[in-house]
């Protein structure tokens, strides 16, 4: 049921629902942020990496003599040297292994071969270019179809027992039930599409400053890390350092979007170099290094089939997907789910059966598979089902909105168990779609579209009604490298009534310092301005799994609410002691306890905090602090409907967005202004994916998209205006009713943009154009249709 959430606290307290200005922005806009590259330590050395120019080749020899002779060079590190310390290979977050520095052969262009440590970063870079490597080139494989052919060269010949390039196989659903449903279908609708490789391209590239003290064995590592606690554990496993001697500090992060979740070879080499040399070592990659070697996203080849009845009801879904994993299986995702949460591909629709089969293939490309502005692989899933549903409506001659409405999961069906096993917590898909249709004037545009065609104009209207799954996840099912996917919050209220909140997650621009303080304000009535939020230092925050895949608010936000409520329960006992009343007689309003029927007999939360340290009840432990590790009982399921109107030039294929309406339902909002900002960012990325942005490779394995001339980033010039709407359907199991929204716009919008273009062209028989749907691709499709 759609509800309205009004703030319960005053603007002075600033709890949930207040559009409080971001407190962290002041230091950023004044140039006072503190990023990894700002870290300067006494005696610090610099590292540069020599990378492979070829995609697949045996290494015959590595000559480092010229590099070693450069003045200022302290050391040159090779894989052979690291092997002496058992560091030539490292585990990935998906349970595979990855070369730190290549020893036997290179498996993608840009792979790390050797590293130079010098007293100046430019000296290090110049020396790295003098390293000579002799290669015997092998056939490069640049797509998973070729990779899985019987005669394809073996990429991972380092792995014992590996006889093919198959990386994984995984399936979900009921094959027999799906086959039976397809046998009785009146119509089978099929779509084969490719979601191309893209890159998060954060403003700040990846980097590290490793400082291993040879006297104490203490390792302090400043990293661009979205998951510092998990990274500390990985470092302990890889480097063999005692975990209590490892301190990961993740300072301000200039964007992450999943790119800063994996552990990269540069981190390991810099730490090993510091350990051996005994001095701090800094490594900050270049933009090209970031684009060609760090965690990518997407690269899914998908085939979907819908079985549809005579009446237009979906009977079943069948999906086959092949993912391009690159040279190493390094996805950052839950262990149990080999293709992430792609099986959410059933979407917002009610049908009894689905069967999803997935395969991953090794190729000669960079590894990664990160959750780029989405929960694990949900963007790809949403794109497939929303493109497929739109095409199904065309094929059976039904309006796409009517077809969706006929097949939506109804509001009274929640909690709803999907055919692939997800338990959707709440939703009202029909209301969100109807609101979006009303905002954009759906019926009027449909009428205009027909008239436009008569006049030689091409107008299209596209829709996507998506469901995302976020907040991974319940410990019985969700872990990464065995680490359960809980998260944490430690809250201390000082004697003066001010508070400090320490979190296991790490912001990269989401506004945690603002929004998490608002959660404390909501629960304890302490003004948000009086709450300090601390993240990113493993010595000074509770253990947590970090920020990625839209999990901060659903998991760490819940942990914050739970611990604040526990402290409020303790505060009530102290208030009863101060007021000489029983707990049962006390009433709570934000920031104050009072005796029922006697509002003048009251104490503030600040009074209680002072008493917690100066006058606690005799039978109660002093202090007002605690920690909570929150294991979510289920994930949350934000949803929405996006509608796009485009005008397509029939002469050139150029298309322009006339209007774009986005209706989101993320449950209860903590800070509406920040939510709107996150939606705008996600919509801009969705537009970029649909129209201009992808990374591809030539037949030799050369990366096309290794700079911002080839890999296009949307600017204000290209990006259309967005109109936002909302419905509010609280999550029934989240302590705040929040669902999270940070990535929904990227999940839902690409299909809406592409559906709009296809809608303008479908009368020509055009049913699919793979992203990016550029003008030349549209023109080519129109020419082919004419022929």
**Which word captures the global form?**
globular
The order of strands across the largest sheet is 3-7-1-14-11-12-13
Q: How can the largest sheet be summarized? A: 7 strands, mixed
What is the CA-based Rg, rounded? Answer: 27 Å
Structure, explained:
This protein is an alpha+beta fold. The protein has 19 helices and 35 strands. The chain has a seven-stranded mixed sheet with strand order 3-7-1-14-11-12-13. A five-stranded mixed sheet has the order 9-18-16-15-10. β33 and β34 (703-704) form a beta hairpin. α10 (378-396) crosses α11 and α14 runs parallel beside α15. The radius of gyration is 27 Å and the shape is globular.
Quick rundown:
The chain is of the alpha+beta class and 787 residues long. The chain is built from 19 helices and 35 strands. Helix 10 (378-396) packs parallel to helix 18, helix 15 (552-579) crosses helix 16 and helix 17 crosses helix 18 (744-761).
Features:
alpha+beta, 7-stranded mixed beta sheet, 19 helices, 28% helix, globular
What's the helix and strand layout?
Layout: H1 25-29, E1 45-51, E2 57-63, H2 65-68, E3 73-78, H3 79-83, E4 89-91, E5 97-99, E6 105-106, E7 112-118, H4 121-128, E8 132-137, H5 144-147, E9 166-173, H6 175-183, E10 187-195, E11 207-212, E12 219-223, H7 228-239, E13 246-249, H8 265-277, E14 281-284, H9 287-293, E15 300-308, E16 314-326, E17 338-341, E18 353-362, H10 378-396, H11 400-407, E19 416-417, E20 423-424, H12 429-440, H13 442-454, E21 458-467, E22 479-480, E23 483-484, E24 487-493, E25 499-503, H14 512-524, E26 531-534, H15 552-579, E27 586-589, E28 592-595, E29 598-604, H16 605-614, E30 625-630, E31 639-648, E32 655-665, H17 672-691, E33 696-697, E34 703-704, E35 723-726, H18 744-761, H19 775-786
Parallel strand pairs: 1-14, 12-13, 16-18, 25-26, 32-35
Antiparallel strand pairs: 1-7, 2-6, 2-8, 3-7, 4-5, 9-18, 10-15, 11-12, 11-14, 15-16, 19-20, 21-31, 22-23, 24-25, 24-30, 27-28, 28-29, 31-32, 33-34
């Amino acid at each position: 049921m759609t509800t309205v959430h009004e703030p319960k606290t005053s603007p002075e307290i600033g709890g949930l629902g207040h559009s409080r200005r971001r407190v962290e922005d002041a230091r950023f806009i004044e140039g006072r942020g503190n990023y990894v590259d700002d870290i300067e330590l006494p005696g610090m050395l610099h590292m540069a990496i020599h990378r492979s120019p070829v995609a697949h080749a045996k290494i015959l020899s590595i000559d480092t003599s010229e590099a070693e002779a450069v003045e200022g060079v302290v050391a040159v590190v090779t894989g052979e040297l690291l092997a002496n310390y058992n560091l030539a290979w490292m585990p990935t977050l998906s349970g595979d292994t990855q070369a730190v520095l290549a020893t036997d052969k290179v498996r993608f262009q840009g792979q790390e071969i050797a590293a130079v440590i010098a007293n100046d970063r430019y000296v290090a870079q110049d020396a790295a270019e003098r390293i000579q490597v002799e290669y015997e080139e092998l056939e490069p494989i640049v797509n998973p179809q070729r990779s899985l052919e019987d005669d394809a060269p073996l990429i991972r010949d380092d792995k014992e027992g590996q006889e093919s390039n198959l990386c994984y196989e995984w399936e979900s659903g009921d094959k027999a039930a799906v086959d039976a449903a397809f046998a009785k279908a009146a119509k089978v609708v099929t779509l084969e599409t490719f979601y191309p490789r893209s890159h998060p391209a954060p403003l700040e590239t990846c980097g590290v400053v490793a400082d291993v003290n040879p006297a104490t064995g203490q390792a302090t590592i400043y990293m661009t890390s979205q998951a510092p606690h998990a990274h500390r554990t990985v470092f302990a496993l890889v480097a063999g350092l005692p975990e209590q001697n490892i301190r990961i500090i993740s300072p301000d992060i200039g964007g992450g979007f999943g790119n800063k979740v994996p552990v990269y070879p540069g981190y390991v080499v810099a730490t090993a170099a510091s350990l051996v040399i005994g001095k701090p070592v800094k490594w900050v990659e270049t933009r090209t290094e970031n684009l060609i070697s760090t965690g990518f996203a997407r690269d899914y080849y998908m085939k979907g089939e819908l079985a549809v009845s005579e009446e237009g009801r979906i009977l079943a879904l069948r999906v086959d997907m092949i993912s391009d994993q690159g040279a190493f299986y390094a996805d950052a995702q839950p262990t149990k789910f080999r293709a992430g949460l792609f099986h959410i591909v059933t979407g917002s629709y009610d049908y009894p059966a689905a069967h999803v089969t997935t395969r991953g293939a090794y190729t000669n490309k960079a590894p990664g598979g990160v959750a780029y502005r989405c929960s694990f692989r949900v963007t790809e899933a949403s794109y497939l089902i929303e493109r497929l549903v739109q095409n199904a409506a065309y094929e059976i001659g039904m309006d796409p909105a009517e077809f969706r409405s006929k097949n939506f999961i109804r509001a009274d069906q929640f909690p709803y168990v999907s055919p692939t096993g997800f338990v959707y917590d709440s939703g009202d898909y029909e209301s969100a779609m109807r609101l979006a249709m009303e905002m954009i004037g759906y019926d009027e545009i449909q009428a205009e579209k027909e008239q436009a065609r008569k006049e030689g104009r091409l107008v299209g209207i596209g829709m996507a009604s998506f469901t995302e799954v976020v907040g991974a996840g319940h410990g019985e099912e969700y872990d990464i490298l065995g680490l359960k996917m809980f998260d944490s919050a430690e809250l201390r209220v000082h004697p003066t009534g001010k508070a400090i909140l320490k979190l296991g997650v790490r912001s990269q621009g989401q506004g945690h310092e603002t929004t998490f303080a608002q959660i404390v304000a909501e629960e304890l009535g302490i003004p948000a301005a009086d709450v300090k939020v601390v993240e990113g230092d493993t010595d000074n925050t509770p253990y947590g799994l970090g920020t990625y895949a839209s999990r901060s608010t659903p998991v760490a936000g819940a942990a914050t609410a739970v611990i604040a409520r526990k402290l409020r329960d303790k505060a009530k006992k102290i208030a009863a002691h101060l007021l000489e009343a029983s707990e049962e007689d006390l009433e709570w309003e934000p920031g104050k306890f009072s005796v029922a029927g006697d509002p003048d007999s009251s104490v503030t939360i600040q009074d209680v905090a002072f008493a917690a340290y100066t006058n606690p009840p005799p039978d109660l432990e002093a202090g007002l602090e605690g920690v909570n590790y929150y294991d979510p009982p289920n994930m949350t399921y934000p949803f929405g409907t996006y509608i796009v109107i485009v005008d397509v030039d029939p002469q050139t294929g150029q298309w322009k967005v006339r209007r774009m309406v986005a209706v989101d339902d993320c449950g209860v909002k903590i800070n509406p202004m920040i939510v709107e900002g996150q939606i705008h960012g996600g919509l801009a990325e969705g537009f970029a994916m649909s129209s201009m942005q992808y990374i591809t490779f030539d037949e030799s394995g050369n990366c096309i998209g290794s700079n911002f001339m080839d890999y296009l980033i949307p600017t204000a010039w290209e990006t259309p205006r967005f109109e936002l709407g909302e419905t509010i359907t609280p999550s029934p199991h989240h302590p705040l009713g929040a669902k999270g929204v940070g990535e929904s716009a990227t999940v839902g919008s690409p299909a809406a943009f592409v559906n709009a273009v296809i809608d303008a062209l479908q009368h020509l028989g055009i049913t699919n154009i793979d992203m990016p749907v550029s003008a030349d691709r549209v023109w080519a499709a129109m020419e082919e249709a004419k022929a």
